[in-house]
Amino acid sequence: MSKVMSRPPASAPPPAAMDADAGSWTLRVRKTWDRVLPMDHLLPHRQPYYVGSWVYVFGVVTIAALVWVVVSGVVLSFMGPQWWHDTGVGHFFNSLHFWSVQMFFIFMVLHLWGQYFMAGWRDGRALTWMIGVVIFGISILTAFTGYLSQLNFDSQYIGISAKDAMDGAGIGAFFNVLNFGQMYGLHVMLLPITVTFIVVVHIVMVRSRGVVKPIGPEGGAAK
Amino acid sequence: MKMLKQEMTQEEYYRGVRMVPYDLVKELFLALAGLGIFVFVLAAAFSSPDVPTVTIQQWAQNDPVDFVSTAAGELAGTTTSAGYGAPYNNAGGEQTWGPFAPQIWFGQRIPIDSANDFVIQPLKYASAGNPGLTTAISTWTSADGDQQTKWVTAYTDALAKATYADGKVSVADGDYGPLPVMMSALLTQGQSGGLDGLLTGAGHFYQVDYTKALLFMGDGNYLFDLADQQNLSGDQWGMMNETGSYPGQTWLWLYTAWYQVWPFTSDTGVLGLNGGNADLGVVVLMTLLTAALALIPLIPILRDIPRWVPIHRLIWRDYYAPKKSAAPARA
Q1: CA-CA distance, A25 to B300, in Å (whole number)?
Q2: Does residue B126 fall inside a structural domain?
Q3: Does the residue B292 lie in any domain?
Q4: Cis peptide leading into A192, omega within 30 of 0?
Q5: What is the pTM of this model?
Q6: pLDDT tens string A23-66
């Protein structure tokens, strides 16, 4: 690194090349990335001392649960929707998926309440909070399509019951909860990709801004 | 908008804050491993629910009077699906809230003719080689509406005291036109499993849309009685629960809760919201509440509660602890 920094000026690009660089989209993207999210912000090895609270763990565990949801879901989708009804191994993978989803929601809600009582949206972090709520909403929709894709009594009854809410709100005209193909397609592809993508955006926003400071002065009463 | 945009770099923001070693990657891997083991244990110990589907065949075999009553109701146009309105038909049963009527706006996008799709067409398949049934269907379809109504009303009334024996639903003598022949044939078709194939297959070899079969089953009481036994009914906090002793979709608790309380349990309600348009009302309400949750940073009082409720002092105990040794350092 120091060698690069100490190169003689003679090796620098000529003025014409620098002009060409100035119009480079690639260079602009890289500079913007370096400014918004340098690596020591994305993967910091030091944090403010108050980050030692257990509340900060909820977000990380939510991500861990999402990883297990996706891993078990990929296995289930690869083997097909009938597999877990017919084989013990398939049913076990469904159970892994089921409990991963339960853990995902438990820790996501704990994370949400934790962030609420920490007022995590302060100091320019409102958009991070809003995107978190969007993740929560889309996750509910993803889980809902999962329950409708189970091909068992639960999915039959949930479909029959839920259609009235969807139809009553006009959503059912485009989102037919009794159409297994539509629900399954949304559940295994579009919605999980969306959740994962927005979670990545959420994490990038958290890391680029850093965690919010505690409310009020250190060692004293809150304002 | 200070809430929306950070006006300083991270380095400036943390200036003067004591930084300590923190291994994020290690924490993530420990969480992955720990949660993976925990989920593995839960899956091994508690498995997951998988109550088999209910078939039309089971319905016709286990509750034949309900099955026949539902089929007669399809012909009479008195079932839920027959009077539903959009997106299935133009029967006009849509939910509205004053001029707000999204169910009507998008029209009949999933056309369902309950009488024809659930009764007449399946019977036509079954009528091959059965001249008696062919004649009965022809008699029904060629009769005028008034005559059909007379037959089906009398038959539906008689079904209230129907008995079932030897594979037949029997009603008191009366003028029911071709209905006893038609209903007997449909019951046989249902009990044999043929109706499952017709309604779930819906004329296709590959088929993934079960709208017709589920709507037909949803018109009867059998599916709901089974759901009631599993504590899944709407007045039992509905689809938030699931079969067996499993947690279900607990995250839907607030959505489900509105169905248990006024005005959504009331016939009259308030401001045009009542039990009749509860689905529309609850979806609107939940949409507004979700938007409010997202916009908390911009909503006074809601965004101030965390400052007033000292839970943050528990979360950041170290930060708020008196700094005995820190005071001289600052001075």
Answers
A1: 42
A2: yes
A3: no
A4: no
A5: 0.91
A6: 889 999 999 999 888 999 999 999 999 998 899 999 999 999 99
